[in-house]
Amino acid sequence: TPASADRPASSQTGTRQYSADDDYFAVWSRADALKLRQDRTNTAPRVSPDFPVTSDRVWQWDTWPLTKLNTKTATYKGWHVIFALTAPRSVPFGDRHWYAKIGYYYSRDAKSWKYGGDLFQPGTAFGSREWAGSAALVGDKVYSFYTASGRDNGGVDPNDPLQRLAMASGRIHADKTHVWFDGFRNHRIIAEPDGKLYQTMEQSQAGPIIYAFRDPFVFRDPRDRKIHLLFEGNTAGVAGTYRCTKRDIGDVPAGHEVPEDAKYYTGNIGLATARSDSMDKWRLQPPLLSANCVNQQTERPHLVIRNGKYYLFTISHKFTFAPGLSGWDGLYGFVGRSLRSDYKPLNGSALVLGNPEDAPTQQYSHYVMPNGLVESFIDTVPTADGGTRFGGTLARTLLVSLKGDRTRLVKQLDYGYIP
Ligand code: FRU
What we know:
49% of the residues are buried. 3% of the residues lie in helices and 44% in strands. It is built from three helices and 27 strands. The protein has a single domain, classed as 5 Propeller (Tachylectin-2, Chain A). With 419 residues, the protein is mostly beta strands. The strands form five sheets. Strands 3, 4, 5, 6, 7, 8, 9, 10, 11 and 12 form a ten-stranded mixed beta sheet that branches. Bound molecules: beta-D-fructofuranose. Beta-D-fructofuranose (FRU) binds next to strand 3, strand 8, strand 13, strand 17 and strand 23.
């Protein structure tokens, strides 16, 4: 068992540093989550129900820009490029996850996106659908990371929760009129949960909410110079056997009881490290941060490194908070002094941007770029007549300021502005 996990936290958080392969992990505690409050600085503006649509062919949700390994967005021959989970608009919006494929889009001005089709040739990817990932440009080579979701050749099956991390490399091409890719024939599974650091599908099956082993985010840590992946995982062990620790609970107000079922909520932010710059072999590392007894899902973790500070972001849902806690669908974040450190929740609670109470699922899957711009997709928006409109398209980009351990919503920009 990880010995350093129970080391007492230093009196001043956000100062301790560890190497990537240490077993110390930071904690998002119930005490932190009890401080969740909405105000002007962290509530997203209402999404207007008359939003425009990026592509009328596909639903578009989780979106990531082509980046360099330093996490900054990259352009290729003057083109901006983004990747996104897509499904035909003929599929009911709520069923899109079971049909998901990575599509790509390109643009000259970083906001009028042209949909280019699927990134991978049919039948080449692992899993029965592709879930979120990241893509790094090195020269003219693109290293694409994704979640191989479902069994190989499993067809459309909402009851198949299998998730593995996968990658393939290809090349980007562009001319005056368009962008295209070739390659991506060398798909490989690069990480699977081991049941000791990360929960397996089998271990998860006694729990109430689907487990996670997904959403790889690639980057090079400027300190150790190694290439790493962040991903969403769950604490290893059979669901329901976890015992909430003092650290998980934190310094809660007198009288706060931890409901029995909190033990089922074990989201974490995982780490894997490439053995070399070829990115051929990856090693699972202990998680960077755990939300045991707080939240079951810390999705799409990603990182912004600024002024020597490591801002660790994740998205989460209202319905995945453990009993006795509540939050909003939106963006949460932590700040630390190195990749593995005693991350402290931004703004005290970790909330960076939450959906307004009267539009709780208006947007999701926020992704913070190093320049502080936050892109996300439009999910389900209430309309004036009491109905809803499904989005499946890019939301307005939001600008968030990051200062020390505080964030603040500054303004909204154009739909899908991803420079
Ligand atoms: C977030 C998410 C990701 C996953 C994808 C599946 O919106 O749940 O964690 O990769 O959507 O559609």
